[in-house]
Design a protein that fits this description.
Blueprint lengths: L2 E3 L27 E7 L6 H20 L8 E7 L4 H13 L5 E3 L4 H14 L3 E3 L14 E3 L4 H14 L4 E7 L2 H13 L6 E8 L7 H8 L6 E5 L4 H11 L6 E3 L6 H7 L7 E4 L15 H15 L5 H20 L4 H9 L4 E2 L4 E2 L15 E6 L2 E6 L1
Parallel strand pairs: 2-3, 2-4, 4-5, 5-6, 7-8, 7-9, 9-10
Antiparallel strand pairs: 1-3, 11-14, 12-13, 14-15
Length: about 400
């Protein structure tokens, strides 16, 4: 269902000079700046889309009460794809042709984003994706950007940690969806760089409810030091529970696709000791005081949890970064001209977000390096920072 929101409340966090006068009753004739979005709010990827939509709606609200952008209110135009690539194509076409949005922030998954890429490239409307797959921005596509850390970055962060622990042989299990497939590909590609051999390589369907057969195949391989699962949704939680049920005592890693309390809830005590790379937002309180992300991440956490009475996730943080980069680009462009906004997004430098410090360029439509990832371990139902 389509929802339009023309929202008003108070702006917090690190956005300056967006305007200091809230809209008065007589300002309704000002043409809104339209931010389009297509998110997986329902369906198997709802743990991504739900906090993303809540973040976009609330921070559009905050920006409007603080005066909007260029003296105009923001209007959020949203469609729920339920994680379906076909719906994503339909809705993005509608956002561009019928709703005539000025910029798009979404979708939630690699599959839905990639379905939209040809449309935004042809229509020349900038898209800032909230999905993790590296194919979104590699090779570079002129009108497409993203805020989440890539699956290649996650693979390299995990492999680097494995190498530091002396691991040389690992088992890999991954989901069959776009995110899992891409993560598997990037892990296989990066492993030789760290002197690590992948001696078992198993996959599962996103609809599977038991992965003990695949994990048993991995366990039967000799000399394995650790196991990595690459996936998102309920699959990783099932893999984690099955891992414990089989009594496997090898170190177990997950990707950034599980960087949400929902994963810990679903996996329950089986998640104890699991390691994963994630953004600073999940451990903001544990960051050193001189970390530039600490104040931004803490402010986002405080506002989100106060408003929605639920824990933050990394995924809502990606939406925050995407919206702020888009807003700052519109300000810098001084208009909603599509080409000018695109150019301004591409020239984003030194933007401190909850996902990292973004420095984009013509050759890099993400603008984050490996330092944007923190290695975490799950203990007592929470996140523990093990590498600053």
């Amino acid at each position: 269902m389509k929802t339009r929101t023309l929202l008003t409340a108070a702006l917090l966090l690190s956005i300056s000079a967006l305007g200091s006068t809230a809209f008065a009753a007589g300002d309704g004739d000002k043409e809104p700046i339209k931010i389009g979005t297509f998110l997986s709010v329902t369906g198997p990827a709802s743990f991504l889309g739900d906090p993303e939509l809540k973040t976009l709606e609330h921070w559009v609200d905050l920006i409007n009460e603080d005066g909007g952008v260029l003296g105009r209110p923001l209007e959020l135009v949203h469609y729920d794809t339920s994680g379906n690539a076909g719906k994503a194509r339909t809705f993005v076409k509608r956002l561009i042709s019928s709703d005539q949005v000025d910029v798009i922030v979404g979708g939630s998954t690699t599959g839905t984003t990639m379905a939209a890429v040809p449309l935004v490239e042809r229509s020349q409307v900038a898209l800032i994706s909230l999905a993790g797959g590296i194919p979104i921005i590699d090779p570079v596509k002129k009108w497409v950007f993203k805020t989440p850390h890539t699956d290649l970055m996650a693979a390299r962060k995990i492999l680097k940690d494995m190498k530091s622990r002396g691991f040389t042989k690992i088992g890999l299990i991954s989901g069959s969806g776009g995110f899992g497939q891409s993560g598997r590909t990037q892990t296989l590609k990066a492993a030789p760089e760290f002197g690590i051999d992948i001696v078992a390589d198993e996959t599962y369907n996103n609809s599977d409810t038991d992965m003990t057969a695949q994990l048993t195949n991995i366990a039967n391989k000799q000399g394995i030091d650790a196991v990595l699962n690459f996936g998102f949704g309920q699959g990783p939680a099932i893999v984690t529970r099955n891992y414990k049920q089989l009594g496997l005592d090898l170190p177990f890693y997950e990707s950034h696709g599980v960087a949400s309390k929902k994963y810990i809830e679903l996996a329950d005590d089986a998640a104890e000791g699991v390691r994963l790379p994630a953004g600073a937002i999940l451990v903001a309180e544990q960051l050193p005081d001189d970390d530039p992300q600490k104040s931004v991440a803490l402010a986002y956490e405080k506002e989100y949890e106060k408003t929605f009475n639920e824990p933050i996730s990394q995924f809502g943080g990606h939406a925050y970064d995407g919206l702020m980069i888009a807003v700052n680009a519109i300000k810098k462009a001084g208009s909603t001209d599509h080409a000018a906004v695109r150019d301004a997004i591409e020239s984003t430098t030194g933007f401190v977000g909850v996902g990292g410090v973004f420095n984009m360029s013509a050759d890099d439509h993400l603008g984050l390096d490996l330092s944007a990832f923190r290695m975490l371990e799950i203990h007592d139902g929470g996140w523990t920072l093990i590498e600053k």
